[in-house]
Write a structure and sequence with these properties.
Blueprint: H1 2-26, E1 51-56, E2 59-67, E3 73-76, E4 80-83, H2 89-100, E5 109-115, E6 120-125, E7 131-134, H3 141-147, E8 160-166, E9 169-175, H4 177-181, E10 197-200
Parallel strand pairs: 6-10
Antiparallel strand pairs: 1-2, 1-5, 3-4, 6-7, 8-9, 8-10
């Protein structure tokens, strides 16, 4: 009987030891999760008037909301003045990262659009809803005309012009609505840029 009691005691002691080991193993902290991968490249093209939010991870002094000036520039701490108009969000992020590397080890820069007020196109003349339109994606001439409610009955559909200012110089692109509507001369149906004016006589 004494031997049986001793054996039972040893068995219970062994079980307690195994339970302790298991508990210790379960309580071991897991490794830090891998950081999330970079987000997809944003092809949005920055324009004057856009409000950007720029931040650098773990750098409280490097967090700022800034509006792109009419000359296309903005000022950010440590980098100074940067011309950002015409860059995509991803291009600006890379440029800021390169400039900040001189001052911050391995900077993690985030750039986002707070308001896309700068990326406007204008449709004027004989359309049903003339005005300015904020665009956050690629919009071609036909899409812009649709946004403006289409042509009126008195529009000269084959004398439409797109006005674009490039480096201070005014450029004119001709657009014949009836041709594009029939699937002809589709190269006329260009993708518009911020600031473009579609004129329907």
């Amino acid at each position: 009987m004494k031997i049986l009691t001793i054996a039972l005691f040893l068995f219970l002691a062994a079980c307690s030891s195994m339970s302790s080991v298991s508990t210790a193993s379960d309580s071991t902290p897991t490794e830090k999760p891998a950081e999330a991968g970079a987000s997809a490249v944003d092809s949005y093209v920055i324009q004057p008037g856009d409000m950007l939010e720029i931040s650098v991870w773990k750098e409280k002094d490097l967090q700022k909301e800034s509006m792109v000036r009419p000359d296309g520039g903005l000022n950010f701490p440590l980098t100074g003045d940067i011309i950002v108009s015409g860059l995509t969000i991803e291009q600006l992020r890379k440029e800021l990262t390169a400039k900040l590397t001189k001052y911050v080890p391995d900077p993690v820069v985030t750039v986002s659009i707070k308001q896309s007020l700068g990326n406007k196109i204008y449709v004027t003349g004989k359309v049903n809803k003339p005005g300015d339109y904020i665009v956050t994606r690629n919009v071609d001439v036909m899409q812009a005309l649709s946004m403006a409610g289409g042509l009126t009955a008195y529009a000269s559909e084959n004398k439409i012009k797109i006005l674009r200012r490039v480096n201070g110089e005014q450029k004119v692109f001709l657009f014949k609505y009836s041709k594009v509507e029939k699937g002809e001369d589709l190269e006329q149906n260009i993708v518009l840029q911020g600031g473009d004016i579609v004129v329907v006589p």
